[in-house]
Amino acid sequence: MTTAVTLMALAGVSPGLAYAQPDTASAAVTGSAAAGLPEGWRVAGSGAGRELVWTAEEAVPMGDARVEFRVDGRLLGYPEAAADGRSFRLAIGAERVDGGARLSVTAGGRRLDAEAPAQAPRLRPAAPADPGARPEAPLPANPVDPGVPGPYRTVSGEYALKDVRLPGFPEPVEMRAAVTAPAGAPGRRPVALFLHGRHGTCYKPGVEEGSGEWPCPAGMRPIPSHQGYGAAQKLLASQGYVTLSVSANGVNGQDHRADDGGAQARSSLVRLHLARWAEWGEHPDKAPAVVRKAAAAADLSRVLLVGHSRGGEGVNRAALDSLSAPPAGQDGYRGPVRWKIRGDVLIGPTIFGQNPVPDVPSMTILPGCDGDVSDLQGQLYLDATRGVSRGAALHSAVYVVGANHNFFNSEWTPGQAKAPAVDDFWSDGEQPDPVCSPGTRTRLAAPQQQAAGAAYIAAAARLFVAGDDRVRPLLDGTGRRAPSAGPARVLTHAVGAGRVPAFVPGSPGAAAALTVSGAGRLCAQIDPDAARACLAPDEGGQSPHFASWETSPEPGRDAVALRWTRTGTPVTVRSERPVSLAGAESLALRVVVPPNTKGTELDVTVADASGRRAALGRVRVDGLPGSERTASYWAREVRVPLSPAVRARLDLRNIAALELAPRTAEGRAWLVDSWGFRPGLPAVRPVALPRVDVGRLTVDEGDSGVRTYRVPVTVSGSGSGQVRLFAPKPGADGADGADGFTSRVVTVRPGHQDIDVRVPVEGNTRYGWDVTRDAFVKAVRGIAVGAHRGGVTARNDDPMPEVRVTPVADAVAEGQALVWRVTLSRPADADILGGVSFLAPAGGAPELSTADLDPEWVRDTYGSVPDPARPLSRPEYPDAYAAFAVPAGETVTEVRVPTVRDGVAEPAEALRAVPFTYDAEWRQVPGREFTGTVRDAS
Predict the structure, then answer these.
(1) Where are the beta strands (DSSP E) in 666-740?
(2) Judging by beta carbons within 10 Å of its beta carbon (0-12, 13-18, 19+), is residue 868 exposed, middle or buried?
(3) pLDDT score of 146 more than 90
(4) What is the 3-state secondary structure (H, E, C) of 289-311?
(5) To the nearest whole percent, how much of the chain has pLDDT over 70?
(6) Are 896 and 818 in contact (CB under 8 A)?
(7) Burial letters for 889-901: b for 16+ Cβ neighbours within 10 Å, e otherwise?
(8) Residue 243: CB partners within 8 Å, gap ≥ 6?
(9) 3-state secondary structure of 208
(10) How many whole angstroms separate alpha carbon 158 and alpha carbon 244?
(11) Which of 57, 133, 447, 783 is 20 to 30 A from 381 via CA?
(12) 8 A C-beta contact, residue 505 and residue 522
């Protein structure tokens, strides 16, 4: 779907989060009549209240990835969603709308406003570039398999404590967890805490009906998402771990209110549970029955956190908050830290802030068929740590071919879950995906996926918590497999663990700037300009390494793009200052090749500062199985020994250039980075880096004049560090393609106001929406970032106009329209939104049905024309209604219900309805009932 619009001066965009706003379908002009917008899009409101609105044909399911509006691939912002999940709206204020670009709606890199893309020829399974190339052999088995159950019997149960209040959330959040622990294990036992992601919160037993509300409405039960990791918990408990899986429905139902998508709230919840376990360790008699039954004492100095989806971002934040306390006003836990996080496991995680904790080891599982967080943005838990701190902690990516997002949790898996559940990968029966549709050779069944997940979670526990280096080859790119993972094809690469940076494009830890010559170029991972971008939008498929963030282009994220048309055409990467590989055993490279390609071979050569060269060897890289719908442009780790350089007497302390020469006739590849590698795991000593948190200041707009406010920024800890600051560009018109933000690297120190972003707020006396101006930061070197985005929100402080509904034509003959007038007491800067719900007529009178009405009106109102016809009071979808809007600046609109002549002699039929509008908190405010009558025309 394309459109002829460009939104200018994007500094005024107000990013929100999904699931907060009322529906506006059919409320005003749509399609090409609205500034050239396609069907489903419109611009509503005026002045500061102008908004861009998109309405989907069907509800967008609740998931972990944020819904995004984009233009020409650049992020406009995060729209707010109606309660029915169909309509999404984004404040654009006074920004212009004119021609020349494409609008899109995405979530986790997947288009929501267009059909699934056709399979491009270049991404279809292809023959090897070299016809004689051998197929990739299965990885050798690791001698130690962490997925084998341990010697202990396990005991299980749940505890439920008093609900807690978290900052920014009006409703309390549950304190509930499922516990599985070893029975009879001696001594104090390590702890593994699981946190599920953003899923539906409530369900009605016996029907396919779910909800994202909290607390659950009457007649509905909480979805037990926290019970979905039972297999992994039981495996770890058999090996001696005390495990608990925390329920977070109360966060899921309210995280649309948070700039960070709920990361801080989830961190608070995790640390509140750990604090309770610390208390129970001191006072076992106060522990819940299941904790006393487990008998094994928890050793909170050895804690592994496991987070799925938004739960992954939550445990990452909990690890940071355990090292550096967040601002007190944002945190739901303010007690002492009586635990030590030894590592994080992140399963298909979100990373909206792209600020991972650099000094806590992590393993990130990337599901190759993820249909929710489908851009596999969790890759940034590795890539965004480079150069930020000392590089001692291992950060591993574990790519599971054929795994989807949901099936790692049995309570999100059809046939296993108590509540309704779905396969998140969007399969198309008419156009099945060759990699990920169920039944394909590469797609995993749910039990296979869960077994692989449990095995690699246990591998991380054994490495990060127990310190068993024998399982490291399963995680660090060495290329070993865990037999207990069954038929799953699992690939890994890593950064950190003492690797020495060699040639790392864009990394602040690189010794100096890089230049590229020959059949390659330095490319931008995030840039709307296809000539600069590493992977152009029309390439088909996605790369987890190039997952987008808040702005495009994004400085500081680069790679080396290689393209050649004949064998032996070299690409040379040269560092401005030589790098040291002294002490390394081999050179490790992370190289991407296009999906489904086989047999790409590269000769690897290095040169020192004196010009002496050494050929290190040849590497082979095969592409992952992929399609237009997958993020399969993913780097494989390959290594070549440095011994030839030693024999050639190169000065390993002064390596100046890396040369890659392809051995195939033509092809493409991307060098993500290269490192000096030696086996082993150095000691990790997490440090409390200075920390930056961007806050939000909410002010009343006032009645007149312009006031200037400063975006609140907190810098805590000691020492100094650098962040890249993105601030609204004053007076920007967006013509430079820079998303309306300025960007610069800032050195920050506690106690100093190094980040100074000021926002003007203009007052008026008209009702409108709140207006937001945002700024955000990303860690560069020597610093940790908690809340990455914040800003100033100018709150509307004017009352909503009064609304009155009066009849114009409430008694008509068949073929005429019933009409009511909606009148405001005064104009507003925003559309005044509302709707009409239909009730059964009083006294059992004959009721109008959908067959009595204009089919086009029925389709616009209900989404389809039901067959057989239905009474208006009993629509197919219980919450369906006819929407209306009084456009901004106006005071009158009409509600029309057009009827048709059916040629059937029948008594008069009645309509009974109740109008409603939305107040400032988006609650429905009902009006007075009204009725209408339609006479037979025969």
Answers:
(1) 667-677, 691-694, 696-700, 706-710, 713-716, 721-728
(2) exposed
(3) yes
(4) HHHHHHCCEEEEEEEEEEEECHH
(5) 89
(6) yes
(7) eeeebebebbbee
(8) 179, 180, 181, 191, 192, 193, 194, 232, 233, 236, 237
(9) coil
(10) 9
(11) 447
(12) yes
Span 182-211, average pLDDT: 94
Rounded distance between C-alpha atoms, residue 191 and residue 275, angstroms: 13
Q: If you count them, how many residues does the chain have? A: 938
Q: How far is CA 814 from CA 151, 448, 870, in A?
A: 78, 61, 18
Q: What is the pTM of this model?
A: 0.86
| Rounded Cα distance, 872 and 845, in Å | 13
- Spatial neighbors of 574 by CB under 8 A, at least 6 apart, are 514, 515, 516, 517, 656, 657, 658
Find how far residue 503's CA is from the centre of its chain: 29
pLDDT digits (tens, 9 = 90+) for 64-105: 778 888 776 667 778 877 766 677 878 776 555 544 457 888
Specify the residue for token string 């559940």: 421
Q: Where are the beta strands (DSSP E) in 40-170?
A: 41-44, 51-55, 67-71, 74-77, 80-81, 87-91, 97-98, 103-107, 110-111, 153-164
Q: Is there a contact between 363 and 346 (Cβ–Cβ < 8 Å)? A: yes
3-state SS class at 457: helix
Q: CA-to-CA distance for 682 and 392, rounded, in angstroms?
A: 6
Tokens of 115: 């059909």
pLDDT per residue as tens digits for the range 547-605: 999 998 999 999 999 999 999 999 999 999 999 999 999 999 999 999 999 999 999 99
Contact in structure between 214 and 253 (CB atoms under 8 Å):
yes
**3 state SS of 898:** strand
Cis peptide before 367, with omega less than 30 degrees from 0? Answer: no
d(CA 44, CA 923): 20
Nearest partner of 534 among 676, 618, 399, 635, judged by Cα: 635
- Alpha-carbon gap, residue 843 to 838, rounded angstroms: 15
Q: Contact 526/556 with Cβ under 8 angstroms?
A: no
Compute the C-alpha angle 513/377/15, nearest 5°.
100
Crossing angle of the two packed helices 446-460 and 230-238, in degrees rounded to 10: 40
Is residue 764 within 8 Å of 705, Cβ to Cβ? no
SS3 463: helix
118 vs 537: CA distance, rounded Å = 15
Q: Is the peptide bond before 641 cis (omega within 30 degrees of 0)?
A: no
**What spatial distance separates the first Cα and last Cα of the chain, rounded to whole Å?**
45
